[in-house]
Amino acid sequence: MTSRIQQFLRDESGVTAIEYGILAAAMAAAVGVIFGSDGAFISALRDKFGAIASDITEAGTDTRSGG
């Protein structure tokens, strides 16, 4: 009986599956933070597209008088 317990304690094959599970959970959390509705990436992307749209709008207006 003690040999089976010692064999069980030395067996590390299940540890790898647990590590992969923890890694997958961490990656899912990171993707959720980055691409979430309030994530830093989405906010920066929204600001950049807003600046580009503003530049395009300003470039399309005619500021010359009598043009």
Automatic annotation (TrEMBL):
InterPro entries from the UniProt entry: Flp_Fap
Transmembrane segments: 20-42
UniProt keyword annotation of Transmembrane helix present: yes
Keyword entries, A-Z: Membrane, Transmembrane, Transmembrane helix
Pfam family, one: Flp_Fap
Domain of life per record: Bacteria
Protein name: Flp pilus assembly protein, pilin Flp
